[in-house]
Amino acid sequence: MVKTNSSLNKERNIRLKGLMASVSEQRDKQAFGELFNHFAPLLRSYSLAREPGSTLLADELAQEVLIKVWNKAHTYKPELAAVSTWVFTLARNSRIDHLRRSGRFSTDIDPTALFESIEDDGPDPFQMAQRQRVEERVHNGLKQLPIEQSQILAKVYLEGKSHQEAANELELPLGTVKSRVRLALQKLELFLKR
């Protein structure tokens, strides 16, 4: 059974809250390691989305935020926000602190004028980083499938063809196409769960 994005998000949020509880209550280094491995690439992407090409700053920001996660874990309130919301609030504040220290952030801004000029039609950096991460994992998963299965998935999901159209194009019985799609999705799901 393929899980929906919302059920995967719920599972991930529950897992992250459990890890935060272990870090907060028991100072569990292994739980922190899992949080680090989850958030470090996302924080790095967040920073690079704000300042492309500044990899050193991105690495410093990720490290600074994750040190704050370790030191301030006891202040996290799971009833108020998801772990990712709390972590990215720390990231936003750390980035503003960095910009202030470097003289590139001024507090002489008229908030009314600022909000009138903001046009934000795109996804936020966290969503972009998550999507990129999922796309990379799916792409790597497709590479590990047998060619017959990845070819069928490409026809059906990337080219938008029906099972019948894929069967006609590849000169295969419709049942074969359907079973290859099902097997490929099952293998892909197992790969993505790792």
TrEMBL record:
Q: Which GO terms describe its biological process?
A: DNA-templated transcription initiation
Coiled-coil stretches:
none
A single GO CC term for this protein reads:
DNA-directed RNA polymerase complex
Q: Which UniProt keywords apply?
A: DNA-directed RNA polymerase, Sigma factor, Transcription, Transcription regulation
Question: The EH domain covers which part of the protein?
Answer: 28-90
What molecular function does GO assign, one term? DNA binding
- Please tell me whether the keyword Transcription is annotated for this protein: yes
Concerning its family, UniProt says: Belongs to the sigma-70 factor family. ECF subfamily.
Q: What is this protein called?
A: DNA-directed RNA polymerase specialized sigma subunit sigma24-like protein
Source organism per entry reads marine gamma proteobacterium HTCC2143
